[in-house]
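fyi for ur records
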Amino acid sequence: MNRKTFRKASFILILIVGSGLITSALLKTPTRKPLRKQHVSFTTDKEEEQWIASELAKLSVKERIAQSFMVACWSNKGKEHLAETETLVREQKIGGLIFFQGERDNLQEAIQQMQSNAALPLLIGMDAEWGTAMRLSGEPRFPYQQTIGAANDLKLTEKIGYHMGIECDMLGIHMNFSPVADVNLNPQNPVIGFRAFGSNPQQVAKQTAAMVKGIEDAGVISCVKHFPGHGDTDKDSHKELPTVSHSVNEFESKDFLPFKSGIEAGTRSVMVAHLNVPALDPSGTPSSLSKPVIETYLRKKLGFKGLVISDALNMKAVSEKYGKSEVVAKAYLAGCDILLFPENVPDAINLIYSKVESGELSKEAINEHCRRILKAKYHAIVHKPMIKRKDPAPERRLIINQIHEKALLCVKNEGDNLPIDKVDKTIIRIAVGTHTSTFRDRLNDYAKITHYKYFTPEEAVRRLKEINLNPDAIYILDFHSDAQRARNNYGFGSWKKVLDLIPEDAKASVILFGNPLVLQNETAFPKAVKSIVCSYENTAPAQERTAQAIMGAFDTEGKLATDINTSWKTGFGITVKGNGRLKYSQPEELGLNPDKLKEVDDIVSKAIEAKAFPGCQIVVAIDGKIIMQKSYGTTIYENGDSVTNEHIYDIASITKIASSTTALMRLKTLGQFDERKDLNELVPEYVKGTPYAELKAIDLLTHQAGLTPWIAFYKRTLENGELDASIYSKTDKGIYNRVVADNIFIKDDYWKTMLKIIVETPLTGKKSYEYSDLSYYFFNKYIEQTSGMGQNEFVEKEIYNPLGLQTMTYLPLKKFSKKRIAPTEYDKEFRKQLIHGHVHDPGAAMMGGVAGHAGLFSNATDLAALMQFLLNKGQLGDQSIIKKEIVDQFTACQFCPGNRRGIGFDKPTVSIKNGPTCDLVSPSTFGHSGFTGTITWADPENKVNFVFLSNRVYPDADNWKITKMSVRTEIQRVIYEALFEARQKRSASAE
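which gave:
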């Protein structure tokens, strides 16, 4: 192949291999095989050696020198700059480019332009320490190394490195100048700081190795930097030459450890810093230009055989002392294989070439440099394996979230102030800074919170002085800084002045989104400050995880990887235990295959297409982690709003467990209910002298008391098909004050008539299972009389408010607009209108919307939170809202095998088949279904929490397609199959 032919072929190769040219649509077509079991060796095989020898022979001496030149390029600098760079590629035959600022699209275009003009494929590099976002605008970024080091999970570090590698690979970048292997020994270091894994050499060494493995496994060249160690400096080598005064022993016992570890892990390149290191080279020559540093210590002492890269040669630490060409030549002669950011390429090439002519530089040394570069190109470009790669985004999102979870640090928590358990108190949040909304939004998922937002501490102080702050409130004060360096107090400014305005008897938690070194001079805080949490970065993932943590969704266990001050040193961190609230997560955290769960989408799609229901919500939590929270379809068939997770549904008979049964369990916990008692002991005034008086609560709640299933009370209130004017009114007036529907109000004591009708209805006389609503009319009255408040008020005060359930409510129109509530049936017989925002069940409507058997509304997430509370045995942190043994009792089958029911709760059939659940659930499962198209099941054994809400009764309650199509049980089956597949996979991998 001649040079011209190779040039065309190499460009075609870049089109195929350089993923910068691969569109997202091609992401799932052939890409590269991970090199996990085949790290690049520093020896050569026959085919590789033949290719290197062949290409080397084609190059003149100057062209071989030029292969060491990696020139800076900005894809956003315009055509003139790119034309100049192209000229260097085409005429000077340079070996590579390091890309700086740009955007994804113009980067890919620039790479294509340059590669198409290259005789040999160009080695493309980038500083992507926190991903390509370090250089490219508009790209999501990975956590900083300081955060990764604080998380201190080597498997996650390796995965982060792998995904950074994937990201580079997708853009056609072959070399990532990462990780930073410097040990951050000096807190005043102006250039390393947050870029380092920490201040403990052993920990930094382990982290460096893990990151190297990840990047290299993605087929991208890693680069550990900045040898021999830039961590103990107080000067920035971009501006001047720093001195590291360590002894040789200190270098070997501290600074060298991460480099040695990175080399052993398989890094293919090491970057040498611009440092004055007298112990290693007494001449004062900067380390990047020092043969003793490179040859004696890096090559011989550490045994490194890969590419040695100079730090950028335009940096003032070297550029101001040496000329633009001389500094390049010195780096080359010192042993650098790649000369980064040379500023005068033609002159520098000629100067190096002149060293050959003068005998100062041998051709064999040039060939050795060039062979290393060709070897790198062979593996990174020419001979790179190809495989299919799945979409990396979901796993990337999970890993980033997990890093922020594990890094999250609590340094103060007086009286176990965190997590926030009691959300039924007033909670006030004061946010200071920018980009604060993700924290706010996730907090709102857990509790009703009053928010104040200010851009600066000065504004906060000024404005808060005008507010009368509640001394009994719980306070969250979150401060946000996008800066990581020391300037302006790490970007936080005079943040502590805000704390002085909080009432001293209040309980406040301070959350710092940014560099925790802001605390290095802080030890004293106002009395109100009970907790301090550091979330290392002000990003959406950091905020979202932090909000969950302080609300108790998971444990906070982060430890410092760097000393903050004498009180808070490396290894310090207070563990804060979670309280059992649901954690917002994703399937991958539990090893579930998201592709398997897409079967749920198909089931729902077919059901909506068949008009089984217009839309629905699904929430699935496993092991307390929400792995699915999705909404489908619309609120009505014709021009309906798209269903969101915030929409509220009439959950019909789920009211029986979510309100009545839960209320009775709470009363039993308080010693005010005994299921062994009969109705004559519970509500004697309504049953005295009737057969109902002897019915025991446990038989009523398990549906074996002989009650008729249902009574159409409303039919007794119609005259010639119209509402009886003596019972109803069109307006809320006088005794007609219980709302039934829009413009329909019933007499406030008509419920007495309904109870009378019930007790006058004959019992079947059989003590066998037959489902009935009627007993819950009595329990509604018992709850009211015992608690001294309406059932709606009791469950809200005792259950829903403490749990932070903001949508679970009776009478939703008192709190929410109709637009947020899914309508149910067009009632043609009784109310003669579309039922929207009022309870669908006629009997519950005649009770004024608050009944024991129906009337409750909720979104799927709140219902899942309630069911999780029951899976947690009625506990919330250290609060026992319902005693554990009572939850166990009520959710267990009471009269198996003849009657499957628990106390109030439905259960699977004894055989698990042909029942209300799929046949994969455990016998311990409990839950209920609702007439409107709703269902909820909680499985303690498998830790599965499943909620499905729909309005299948819209516009006609006779539509039973949801049952005929087995929509809910089939969705449940998919969930269990995904779970069991994940468990099998884990078991197999463990073996």
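The CA atoms of residues 115 and 209 lie 32 Å apart. thats all i got for now
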